[in-house]
Every structure is written in C-alpha cells, then in structure tokens.
Amino acid sequence: MPDVFVGAGSNDRAEQHLAQGVALLEDALGPLRCSPVYRNPAVGFDGDDFLNFVIGLQTDVPMAECMRRLRAVEDACGRDRSGPKFSPRTLDFDLLIYGDFVSTDPAIDVPREEILQYPFVLKPLADLAPEARHPVVGRSYAELWAEMAADVPPGALTRVSWSPR
C-alpha cells in the first residue's frame, strides 16, 4: 500500500472543523497519523490565521477515489467552493503525496507543488516523515525543511499545542 500524505488546514472555527475532518477521514480511509499543528498567517488574502498539519496513512484506495473522499469530507464540514481560490476555509484537505506517483497531467497536482513552496506544508510533512523522499527531487523532507527553514521569517510558522485527536 502506498504512503499517502494529506495537507490539512482551516481558518474558520479551525479546531472544530479540523477535528471533525480528521474523524471523518479516518472513517473514509482508515487509520491516520497526524503531525504537530502549526499556526501561520493567511496566504494570498487578508484573513484569520490558519491551523495547518499533515495527515499520513497507508491505503489501498486508488488515488482518484482518495481525492473524491477528501472532497466529500471537506463538503461534509461545510466547505464553500464558490469564493476565490485564496479565501477563508472551514476545511482544506490537499492530497500532497500518493506513494511515488508523479502526475504528468497538469490538472492533477501530485506531488503538490506547495510542498516545496510553503513552510506550513513542508514542516509538518518533515515532522511526520523526515526520512521519506520527495518523488521528484529525491531529497528527504528533513533535508528540504532544513534548507527552507533558514528563510522562514520569525512568526511565520508557530507550533501550537492543540491536536485534532
């Protein structure tokens, strides 16, 4: 079974929606592991801070079905898709990694480009799977984080004590 990693985030009643989303996702895909949770400012719009973390699991559910189930959980938690791309979120689940799959279809962003762009994606992924390797660049998430961490401004990413479980 492939190792699957899902980015999770919310800035609208974040603790409530993230806890609900994790419970529903575990029902949909099986046992989960969660990274530590981080608080970070909204990106791309003025809004409340986000809580973000990464969920890890192993599943024999095909990738397209995993993506469908992620979307169904978002919808069950009140996700509104009518607004702009960068806007408040009740729940945002992004399929980051599905085993060693690398998409050649521009409509399917797996592995997610955000892994290499945003500290709030890479840091929790490195916490959860430090020795795992990015399927495109071939470097471990711990190595990638060590490189990115030097450029993260103070206050841009703060670990919080809350957990979705």
UniProtKB/TrEMBL annotation:
Pathway: Cofactor biosynthesis; tetrahydrofolate biosynthesis; 2-amino-4-hydroxy-6-hydroxymethyl-7,8-dihydropteridine diphosphate from 7,8-dihydroneopterin triphosphate: step 4/4. One of its GO terms (biological process) is tetrahydrofolate biosynthetic process. One of its GO terms (molecular function) is 2-amino-4-hydroxy-6-hydroxymethyldihydropteridine diphosphokinase activity. InterPro entries: Hppk (IPR000550), Hppk_sf (IPR035907). It comes from the Bacteria. Its EC number is 2.7.6.3. Gene3D superfamilies: 7,8-Dihydro-6-hydroxymethylpterin-pyrophosphokinase HPPK. Pfam families: HPPK. Residues 6-130 form the 7,8-dihydro-6-hydroxymethylpterin-pyrophosphokinase domain. Keywords: ATP-binding, Folate biosynthesis, Kinase, Nucleotide-binding, Transferase. CDD domains: HPPK. NCBIfam families: folK. PANTHER family: 2-AMINO-4-HYDROXY-6-HYDROXYMETHYLDIHYDROPTERIDINE PYROPHOSPHOKINASE. This is 2-amino-4-hydroxy-6-hydroxymethyldihydropteridine diphosphokinase. It comes from Abyssibacter profundi. The gene is folK.
